Fold EscV/YscV/HrcV family type III secretion system export apparatus protein.
Amino acid sequence: ACPLLLGKISALGRYICHKFSYSGEIKAIVISPEIEDRIRDGVRPTAGGTFLNLDASEAEMILDNFKLALSGINIPIKDIILLGSVDIRRFIKKLIESSYRDLEVLSYGELTENVPVNILKTI
């Protein structure tokens, strides 16, 4: 691998962790493999691109899980991230953005070892 590219990737990871850390740590809600699989099963490729196609009851159930997890946390939403797999990160963001505009979604690969991750809950 190119040392210049690795340096840029490392710098980007440090920037992301710095941006989303509060009080020296990243506060995260982890998306469970079961929820990730449900979202992954709803991803549909088309000629125009890939999109999330969950039926209304499935989407509502997933959003209810997010709401339940967030209701018991006394931390502002802007200080929390959702942590999930890179392949569905953008679909999770799309699913929650109308209800939780300030809630960011990161993938595991965007984190660095320098900033501790405080897992608040798993959905």
Observations:
- The mean pLDDT is 87.
- The chain has one domain: 3-122.
- The first strand starts at residue 26 and ends at 30.
